[in-house]
Specification:
single chain, 193 residues, alpha+beta, Mannose-Binding Protein A, Chain A, 2 domains, 8-stranded mixed sheet, two-stranded antiparallel sheet, 10 strands, binds calcium ion, C-type_lectin-like, C-type_lectin-like/link_sf, C-type lectin 37Da, CTDL_fold
Length: 193
């Protein structure tokens, strides 16, 4: 068991070294000298004190987002997020939806934004196209999804200050802004002692 853990540790250090070759070469020389112990540490997110820019993504809550007000149809919005190594947003909870809506209202950006929600595969079965999970029922605006004229199959975040926020199904060809969500960044650090 101890050997397994050690192997895992060595393999994770090796993976990190593939990414940060020159730093690891330096660490390897240090550790070969036998005078130092090196402990690798990987954490979620980017600590504030590092002062690293995460542009074009902005941090809202504990996640990173790219918010575009310039409109695209749903398919083009999906592609556009992929081009920056992100995904059209999938809300994991009502809290996340509300947090982003509050941010947009506060910054005078209340509008309609594409999410990755869709029932294109099966009518009335709305899923997040970015991860295949079902869209939770508490995220919808009142009376939605209504599949109006039997042609609404893509889901937008609809923000109307004073009226309400939530998801609405809409024609996929409609031109909306969109929100991409970045994968959670990880910070690797090494403690030398
Ligand atoms: Ca539909
Ligand atoms: Ca609708």
């Amino acid at each position: 068991m101890k050997g397994d853990a050690l192997n895992k540790g060595i393999s994770s250090i090796y993976k990190m070294c593939l990414k940060y070759t020159s730093m690891c070469a330096f660490l390897a020389i240090l550790s070969l000298s036998g005078a130092y112990k090196i402990t690798p540490n990987v954490i979620e997110g980017v600590p504030g004190f590092l002062n690293i820019t995460t542009a074009p993504f902005i941090k809202i809550g504990s996640n990173y987002y790219f918010i575009e007000t310039k409109g695209l149809n749903w398919f083009a919005a999906f592609e556009s997020c992929k081009q920056i190594q992100a995904d059209l947003i999938a809300f994991e909870s009502l809290e996340e939806l509300q947090l982003i809506s509050q941010y947009l209202i506060y910054n005078n950006m209340a509008a309609y934004y594409w999410t990755s929600g869709t029932d294109l595969a099966k009518q009335d079965k709305h899923v997040w196209f970015s991860n295949g999970q079902p869209v939770a029922s508490d995220l919808w605006r009142k009376g939605e999804p209504n599949n109006e004229n039997n042609e609404e199959h893509c889901d937008e975040l609809k923000i109307e200050p004073g009226v309400g926020v939530g998801l609405n199904d809409r024609r996929c060809s409609y031109i909306d802004g969109y929100i991409c969500k970045a994968p959670q960044p990880k910070t690797a650090s090494f403690i030398v002692w």
